[in-house]
Specification:
Order of helices and strands: HHHHHHHH
Distance between the termini: 70 Å
Largest sheet: none
Shape: rod-shaped
Helix content: over 70%
Structural class: mainly alpha
Number of strands: 0
Radius of gyration: 28 Å
Number of helices: 8
Strand content: under 5%
């Protein structure tokens, strides 16, 4: 457990600013772990789920589609279920409802992501602030002793001041990496939901409303 004592030793040398930077690292780690677990449970093979659903719709088995969506809960299934609940509404209303259902799914993906954005932004700024404060204190000692200061002591003070910048960047860099990773997964899912949502609407039109007369607002 020696590394823990060394870590807290560095935090102590870096000054009071190291405390919020350390707290930011703990919060960022907790958010990343929570989001990874969420994404592992949330994501499914969207295409593998939709193909059997499309086949059932083309065969006219809407009730079986609902059963499949309820037995295998996933974001696309919830969107399709929302569309099947009201098949008789005009197409533009159906598209609007599916868009709203899709947005709700996307919003669930963005939970806590804002927190990572804030941490990625403020961590290096807090590190820079700590360095500036440390440099001010170091050169204030030089002024007090009218320049008669041991260079090794001055270098030590500057080294400790730079610790906060290093700490802030150490928190911000992995946070930014994970933030882009989560954004990419969100964009990928949003594209898939839009793609298969449109295919669902087209398949419903083709099977249940081939003449489109009941779809006119």
């Amino acid at each position: 457990m020696g590394w823990i004592s060394e870590l807290f030793g560095l935090i102590g040398k870096g000054g009071i600013i190291m405390v919020p930077i350390f707290l930011c690292s703990i919060i960022a780690l907790a958010i990343v772990i929570e989001r990874i677990i969420f994404f592992r449970k949330y994501f499914v093979d969207v295409e593998g789920f939709f193909n059997p659903v499309l086949k059932l719709i083309r065969e006219g088995h809407a009730d079986q589609v609902l059963d499949r969506c309820k037995k295998k809960p996933n974001p696309l299934g919830r969107i399709i279920e929302a569309g099947l609940d009201e098949k008789d509404i005009p197409r533009w209303k159906l598209e609007e409802k599916l868009t709203l259902a899709g947005q709700e799914e996307i919003n669930s993906l963005e939970k806590n992501i804002r927190g990572l954005e804030v941490i990625a932004t403020i961590s290096p700024l807090m590190g820079l602030l700590g360095t500036v404060i440390g440099m001010v204190q170091a050169f204030n000692k030089v002024a007090e002793f009218e320049g008669q200061v041991d260079p090794s002591l001055l270098a030590g003070g500057i080294w400790e001041a730079l610790l906060t910048t290093a700490a802030g960047l150490s928190v911000a860099i992995p946070t930014v990496i994970m933030l882009h990773y989560f954004d990419r997964k969100k964009e990928k899912l949003a594209f898939s939901l839009n793609k298969y949502g449109q295919q669902f609407i087209y398949s419903m039109d083709a099977k249940f409303y081939p003449d489109q007369t009941t779809r006119i607002p």
